[in-house]
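User: I'm preparing a small set of examples for a lab meeting where we compare how different chains pack in three dimensions. I only have the primary sequence for this one, and I'd like the structure in token form so I can line it up with the others. Please keep the answer compact; I'll paste it straight into my notes.
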Amino acid sequence: MSQLSFEFPDGSVKQFDDGITSEDIAKSIAVSLGKKAVAAKLDGKFVNNDEPLHKGGKIEIITSDSDDGLSVLRATAAQILKMAIANDFDNIHFGQSDADEDGFFVDTDKPDTQISVDQLESLSQSMHKIIKQDLPIKVVFLSADEAAKVAGDDPYQKELVKENEVDGKVKFFEIGDFKSIAEGAVLPSTGKVKIFKLLSVAGAYWQGKSSNPMLQRIYATAFNKQKELDADLEKRKEAHERDHRVIGNELDLFFVDPKVGAGLPYWMPNGATIRRTIERYIVDKEVANGYQHVYTPVLANLDLYKQSGHWDHYREDMFPPMDMGDGEELELRPMNCPSHIQIYNHHIRSYRELPLRIAELGMMHRYEKSGALSGLQRVREMTLNDGHTFVALDQIQEEFKNILNLMVDVYHDFDINDYTFRLSYRDPKNTEKYFDDDEMWTRAQTMLKGAMDEMGLDYVEAEGEAAFYGPKLDVQTKTALGNEETLSTIQLDFMLPERFDLHYIGEDGKQHRPVMIHRGLVSTMERFVAYLTEIYKGAFPTWLAPHQVKIIPVSQDKHLDYAKKINDQLRALKIRSSVDTRAEKMGYLIRDAQTHKIPYTLVVGDEEVNGNSVSVRKYGEQDTQSESVPDFIDEVSKDIASYSREE
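Assistant: Understood. Below is the structure token output for the 647-residue chain.
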């Protein structure tokens, strides 16, 4: 019998007979490993535990207590769900299914009516019956003709059969009489799945393309233990309560209208107030730090992006060019940097002007797929808090520190404290894929590292993660749900100054090439507002809150004039205040102000009118306290001025 060679994660290599299973390989290593093994990965692809192997390669044994083991459990649950759906519904078609760290899903389509959320409980019961029978799950390989017969008149399965055909065969999972195209690896029987939950239904385009039919996606999850499912459901509940799309609807911050287009948000007055406050803050902060703010067109000649390299490298993320009919093609800009280069190049620059700092709240457009769009986090039109500094080579380190100090200062004002730094270098073993200047790379990377060390900041070094045109610093932050994302970046760029032939006149009277530093303090306005909405859970600090003070008169007849008088005083100080004039009961109006997370609710009645005072209730507190009007104005003014930080 021929031998197969398998390489293990520790680098060791072993020979086994052709046709051996991954389960037998696991047992040969250790009996305990054989008991825990649920599947394997061969050259990165899942294979079933009992599936005969006919080729060698890099192999990894998957155990039940690993993340991949959880994916195998969920892939098994997905097959059981498919069988339950096929049993319960006639003329059902199946799209894709998948299992990952978040759970699993199954896409379906039904000509007459889609599966509704009300039917999930019934489907769960059907799944439990299949699980109780502990039916074997087998791997079978069918010929293309046999697979086509299994697919029948299901257009999606027909397409998947073609995509999954290898050497004239298609791999299926078989449970009793039910067959489904194999995706991932599964456990040996249905009885191995104990803990699962069908969560929700939502629309999903076939294969993620908006031009394709809309299918019905059933979301679900599965775990090895009930306590793990309970913790996950609690996390999902928290995620829903913090979801900026949910909060955005509750607080009337923004909306997206399919009549206008996906990924094109409308900012309502409340959301626009938050955004405007952030924009004014950022502009003032940057101007105070030596930046010159500009406005540049959202359209540019396509040749500009060809020269910058964006057309070659990011064409798939750019909208199609607009032919103006006279040979000129205009492009919606995907990046602001070429525009700021034009600002730099408009004059002859001297070394005395450097560092030259240019900033803009620049609107950009990205050709995002419909399936990837999500509220304000993934959009097609966005406004980036963008900045570019042009420096001499020996100014890099100092300017890098200036930018980083500005970032940290901004984070402090927004009460962002959970973040880490990641320095990204080029891969020293694969330098040919980077901008070709070894000396400049070495010097720049040394400067960035030196600046971080001088500032006493902890950071992670990541070789091979630099952009092809320069090293960078990424600021990684935790979202409200503990996920990591990049909030800010400082990026050195040697390539664009070369492409656009940028220069300045040095002290020696000769031309020198500047280095360009790209930086974004808080990403785009859209993504930053989404991030803050979820971090604050919609309870924005006073300085950011769209409504800072709500005044409620006890009696519209007797106390309205006094309420309006206080309101006028507050608004004269640019405090966002309003009087609630609705003919509702006092308790309802107070609860409504709390529901809308207004920082200060003031109630005024006879006592307040007579004493030139207000009854103050802060958001999230049950108690009220009486304050004189001047004292309250002083309190709220200090709250706003300190960015709502407790000093």
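A couple of notes for your slides: The first strand starts at residue 3 and ends at 7. Residues 21 and 51 are 6 Å apart (CA to CA).

User: Perfect, thanks.
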